[in-house]
Structure formats: structure tokens, C-alpha cells
Amino acid sequence: MTATFEHVRPSACPACNAAPAAEHLADLPLDATLMLSLPGIHCAGCISGVERALLKVPGVREARVNLTLRRAAVQAGPEVTAEALAEVLERAGYEAHELDPGVLATTAADRAGRDLLMRLAVAFFAMMNVMLLSVAVWSGADGVTRDMMHWISAAIAIPAVIFSGRPFYVSAWSALRARRLNMDVPITLAIALAMVTSSYETIHSGHHAYFDAAVMLCFFLLAGRYLDHRTRASARSAAQELAALEVPRAIRLGDAGEETVSVAELVVGDVVRVKPGGRVPVDGVVLSGQSEIDRSLMTGESLPAFAGEGSMVSAGEVNLTGPLTVEVTAAGRDTALHRIADLVAVAESGRANYHSLADQAAKLYAPFVHILSVVAAVGWWLYTQDLRIALNIAAAVLIITCPCALGLAVPAVTTAASGRLFRKGLLIKDATALERLAEADTVVFDKTGTLTNGAPTPLDLDGLPGDAGRVALALAQGSSHPLAVSLAKALAGQGLRPAHVESLREVPGHGVEGTWQGQVVRLGRAAWVGAEAAAETATFLKIGDSAPLTLRFADTLREGAADVVAALMAQGKRVIVISGDTTAAVTRFARDIGIEEVIAEALPHEKAALVADLTAQGAKVLMVGDGLNDTAALAAAHVSISPASALDAARAASDMVLMGRSLAPIADAIRTAVSARKRIRENFTIATVYNVLAVPLAVAGLCSPLIAALAMSLSSITVSLNALRLK
């Protein structure tokens, strides 16, 4: 598994709650807290296993793991390094990588959600109590008794409305300062006018006060706001996630020998050493050494690439087999990895320009409401010369036209749709994701790790002659190369025991060799063992002087991939596969799965450029990807989905996350999104029809503010029931 460090937030996962609380770690001094990423942990047993392994390290005072974030925070003395902790975890069977804690923002608990829930509770308490007091007035209380009920209602409602309605007031004030209107402007005016009118009536011993209408407005609108909030997952910026992947320290070679320095101190021309298993800290050229580089995060290539003298390497790539000496050509903000982070940040800011259906409705609705209320107030004042009647009718118009139904129209539907998709294994992170998904007409898939499982699987192992399988197992167990790891796992799964191979050693960039029964045995590249290169992914086994054996591999199709491609095409979607893999491999794969449009050997910025080009042509792109090389494209797309197995940065850049292995929920998600958009428009129609019928009554003076509030509540309930049809 892999480990990365950052400040840890409390987890909602029961397994994480079983572990000791980690909230106080954010307050620890930065130089005493190391952050590790643990992408392979999956249960409470992993939590205890990782924490036990870390606590055994001398100098470690405290270690806490967050299962939801798959990260650990360690408080340790200055003599303890993140590299040493990662090595300890690797030996314990957990993949671990260091993160830069200075880059990661502290992730607090869901303060916004708690704040809304608290205000909703206060509004509910006030509403129920004021309604009880209003019953006495409706029952015929008069004189001093009625006035007392009104004053008690005022004492409850005024502070409750001031406190509960704050989100609407702040939003309305921000909109007015920017010289624009939003839904919260008429909401704020309706609440304010209801409170002013009610206070005026109470002071002058009027027969009617409408504090219950004001708190009822607050309650229903806060319920809609909280539903809207719940549809979004709290996720950090993808750009921050990418920046945290940058290696914070490097081993610099100088006249005094090796020294560990901050990457920020490196300049062009410096020479650094990259150990096997380490992430490359800079962009540079290899001066000496041979190894294989895992570039899957950067380019999507499914197989490691050979790196020798003169080879170019990039920050974020993983050195697999041998030590490398690298001359720095770019460091820090100038690296390819950081440029991808910049691309993501630009794409994320562009996506924020999307205007939801509710926003579009507000542009038309808010001015109409304000003008109508002013006209009604002025008209009745001119007709009656009674300011009290004019204010009452203006309040009734504002309340009956208050966009409570419109405010609930979108969150009620998205909450119902989100619940349905959650049960099918798809988590929605962004409030407008469903609306954008319903508009998608072009689907772009990454190949490796998205349509496929991203791990090579050996083929035809049953046909290995004699002891070849046992020899291959012994050699494969001596290498960390992805093909060797997969081969060793498959052979061991067949019940084979490794042969007794002596003098086992890994030759960086070539393979593994040893001696078996007096013969030299090798497992590795074709040229190294004297074999002809194969067209497909393969490694080669040579035993003594016998002819080399070809061990072929194939990346297996992800569950549901073929079905979802067929379903999308049946829906009339344009489907494209884009990959950093070779043209032959991508073309052959696309033909097998039924996709005609193929783009191969694509770099990260080229993937983002493709999405931008499609968008410029008028397409609404759904991007599905899982790697670092997909992150900019995920952020640039109209809407995006990533699997749960994706890199943290890819998940953060996506609007939705597939929680299971299967891709099947994607097709159903599009159908649900289209249905949800239909329900939203139906809700807008319901709200509009309600206003067309109710507004004339309010303007004519036939509705008191209280009746207006009850009518508004009825429309809100109707909208919510219509949204539940999605379930």
C-alpha cells in the first residue's frame, strides 16, 4: 500500500471511529508532524496494523490513521524521517508515500453542514412554539390576552429569525453589493417585511401578527438549503492534491557528498540521487544508472519504461529497480507535475461559471417579485391611504411569491436522485453535477485503470513445461517490476513452490537472473535473454541454453465496461477512448470493446486539450478517468466521474465517484440525471402555476400574510412529493 501525510479530519466511517480520535493532530507543530498516504488500506484491521508498525519505530510518539482519507499523521522527534516510516510500512505490507504537510490545507469537520443544521433546529423550535401561541389567537383570544400572545411570539420569533436566517441575509447582501439579484434577495425581503409588519401590528395592538409566517419561511427555506448542502461531498481542491504529491525533499550530491535538502532549494544544474522505490523529485536527465520508471501516473503507460544514461525523467514518476543519478532541468513550480496542477486550477475555476437551473430562474423571478410587491403596496396605499393595509398586502405578496418552492425544487430532486445513485454505487460530490450530466452528449474514457483494471494478468501459464513455472516463480519473487509481481502472484495461486535459485540478483532495466542446477536462468526483457520482441505485453524466461519462453500478459477488462459502452451508444452518445498507451495496444483494445474513436499516446495536457476542443465544438463532455494524467481533463470536462480506486487528485477533480469496481452505474446515472432534470422543470412549473393562481388573490387583498405562508408551505410540500417520485 502507499502512504502520504496530511492533517487528518474526523471520519464518518465506523471503522475510523473505532480508532482513537485524530482531531488534535492538526494543532501539532508542523515540524513534528509527518503526513503519509496509505492508498491500500481498506478496513479497521489495516488501521491497527499501520499504527502498531509506526509506534514500534524509536522516536515516534503518536500515530493516527484516517481510513476515509487513507492517510496517517505521525508525531515524532526530528530524528525520524518520512522515508524511514515508509520503509517500515512497506516491510509490514502497506504501501506508503510521503506528502508535503505544508501544502495540504487542514480539513476541518463539516462546519457548514453543522451550522445549517443548528439554524434549522432553531427555526423548527421557534416555528412550533409560535404556531402553538397562534392557535390561541385563532381560537378567539382578544384584547390583553391576544396582545400578550403576540408579544411572546415576538420574543421567540425575532431572535430566532435573526439567527436562523443569517445564510439568506449574507447571500442577499453579497448579491446586492455586486449589483445583481439572486433567490435570497426576495427571501430576505419577505422575511424582513413579515417581521416589520408583525412588529408594527403588535406595538399597535393589531388583530393580526405574522411571526409564525416568518419563522415558517425560515424553516422551509433552511430545509431546502440543508438538502442542497447534503448533496455535496466536502473535497479539497484537486490542485492542492496534486501539489501535495510533489516530493518535498531530495538527496543532492555535492562536494561534501550526499545531503538531504528541500526541493525548493534545488536549482537547474544540481545533481540528485533517486533511490529504487522513490518518487522522482524533479524534471531532469539521467547522468548514470539504469532502472525502470513507472510513468503510469503521468502518461497512463501501463508498462514501466527503461531509463538509462541520457533518459529524461519527470517529477512524480516512480523509480522501480535501480538507483539513478539525475541532473536537474526543472524543479518546484517549473516541473511538468506542477504545470498539470496549474492546468487543473484553471479548469476548476472555469467550471465554476456554470449556471444552474435555479440560478437561471432567479434572474427572471426576483425582479418580477420585487416589482409586483412594490406595485401592490403603492396601489393599495393610494386607494386606502392606510399604510398598515398597504404593508400587509405587500408582505402577503412577498410571502406568497417567496421562492420557497423554487428553493426546494432543485435540492429536493438532487437529494432523491443522489440517494438512488448512492444505493447503486455512485457518489455525487457537486451540487450541479446531475444537471450537467443530463446535458452530456459525448463520453471520453481513459483506458488503463478505468476501462481496464490497470494491472497486467499473465496468460496461458498452464502450458509451461517441466520446472519452468517453479523457476519463473523464484525469479519473479526477486523483483518489484509490475509484471514480475503479477507473475509471482499468479504462479503462487496455482499452488507452485519456487525452485531453489541461487545468486539471485536484479539487473536494473533488464530483469532478474540467478543460478539453478548449475544453469544461468533469466527473467526479463527480450533482448536480454536473446528472444525476439513480442507484439503484445510479455516477459521472457530463459533456462540455461534452452530456447526462451514467452510469458504473455493482458490487462483485464473492468467489470461492466463492455456493458456501459454498449448502453451509452444505445443512448446515442458519442464514445471516445483516450490513453497514453501505445497506438497498437489502444486500437486493439478499443476494437474488442466496440469503441471506434481512438486517441493513443496522449500526454496529460493533450487530454485536457482534447476535452477543450470538443467543448469548443459545442459538445458537452463526460470525462471518465482515474490517473494523474487524467486530472486536468477531468476538471476541464463539462462533468466528470472517477472510480474509487483512482488517485486522490483525480477523485478530487471529479464531480462523481464510483464506489464499486463496476462501471455499470454510469449508464444508469445518465438516465437518472435526465429524469431528475425533468422533475426539476416540473417543479418549476408547479411553482409557476401556484404563483399564477395565488398572486392575484394576494394582490387583491384576499390573502393575509398567514394564509400566504400556509399556501407557500403547501406548494413546497407538493414540490418535495414530486421529487420523491425519482425513488
From TrEMBL:
Main location: membrane
Membrane association type: Multi-pass membrane protein
Coiled-coil segments: none
PROSITE patterns reported for this sequence: ATPASE_E1_E2 (PS00154), HMA_1 (PS01047), HMA_2 (PS50846)
Keyword Mitochondrion: no
Pfam families with a match to the protein in the record: E1-E2_ATPase (PF00122), HMA (PF00403), Hydrolase (PF00702)
Stretches assigned to the HMA domain: 32-97
GO molecular function, one term: P-type divalent copper transporter activity
GO biological process: copper ion homeostasis
Compartments it resides in: Cell membrane
Transmembrane segments: 116-138, 150-169, 181-203, 209-227, 364-383, 389-414, 684-700
Top-level lineage group: Bacteria
Record keyword Transferase present: no
GO cellular component: plasma membrane
Key words, A-Z: ATP-binding, Cell membrane, Ion transport, Magnesium, Membrane, Metal-binding, Nucleotide-binding, Phosphoprotein, Translocase, Transmembrane, Transmembrane helix, Transport
Family: Belongs to the cation transport ATPase (P-type) (TC 3.A.3) family. Type IB subfamily.
PANTHER family given in the database record: ATP7, ISOFORM B, CATION-TRANSPORTING P-TYPE ATPASE-RELATED
Name of protein: Cu2+-exporting ATPase
Species this chain originates from: Roseicyclus mahoneyensis
Lineage: Bacteria, Pseudomonadati, Pseudomonadota, Alphaproteobacteria, Rhodobacterales
